[in-house]
Amino acid sequence: MDFFKNRNKIALWSALVLALVEIARQFALGDYPETGSAVADFIAVFSCNWLIWQFNFFVDDYQQRTLASVSHRNTTFRFLLIFVTGAAIVVAVESVVHHFFREAGSNVLFYFLRGVFHNMVILVIYFAMQNQRRLQLVEVENAGLKEENVLAQLDLLRQQVQPHFLFNALNTLKSMVKSNDPEASNFIIHLSGVYRYLLQSSMKQQATVREELEMLHSYAFLLKTRFAENFQLDIQLPEQALASLVPPLTFQLLLENAVKHNVVSMDKPLRIEVVCHDGKYLVVRNNLQPKKSVEESNGAGLENINRRYQLLTGDSIEVLKTVESFEVRLPLIK
User: Fold this and answer.
1) Are the C-beta atoms of residues 201 and 207 closer than 8 Å to each other?
2) Which of 3, 14, 34, 166 suits 208 as a labelling partner, its CA being 20 to 30 A distant?
3) Domains and CATH numbers, the chain
4) Does the pLDDT of residue 309 top 80, yes or no?
């Protein structure tokens, strides 16, 4: 319950219930010789309780307006201030009621102590609700900080993808230009298309599989230009899988990773499949033919993808390696 949206209702009902319980208790004990005394006593108890609540609200509103800090010292002072003021309210109201509506011989001290007890009950309720509200605010703030941290980490991971992709693409283009490859101009056209997608996706946390595959066909063209028929890409995904989501450039990273670490030759063509498994995973699989001269991998590409999945969904990717194949399973994000 939001205490500060419903505080007047809480004050009204708690003041009313405390007054009714107290009057019912005294009525059962036979403390009221006539109904008028009970009514006057009820008005006195209810008025004290209501005024104590309102003073609590006054102090709280003042603190909010002045942006006073809620330290342990301030809380202690506030407790004492409200308690003393509440006791003064009890003395004032009970004195008036006692003078005009009660018999001269009645025990005024009893009424004062009863009011002080109610004051304590209201204080306990009020500070308990305030503490609950503070805990809720802390939870909201922590959730906000967590979200900001996740977004910052995702942005950092995306930034790692961009220079990595561009560096490799420019190296390929450099080799093509040096060898006077006639496909260099087409390579530049498709490279610009891929890089345009990279820039457009830089502000996204997720992209649809359909969008990723459109870019992937352009990226595959770049690889086909370099490796001809020695590079083969087979994509077989059902329509429903195309609407699922992935972190941007996931497939591009996986293809780049496969080309980097495997032999791609006429004798050993590299075959990459993109399929759906059990309706739960997107699978990117390639035949395993590791390069002998490739430098030891630090797994940065796979770790980048895995980290982004963990930040976005809490799930991790699965890597399955056999003698013949290397497979990465990406959880479907609906």
Assistant:
1) yes
2) 166
3) 7-144 (no CATH), 181-331 (3.30.565.10)
4) yes
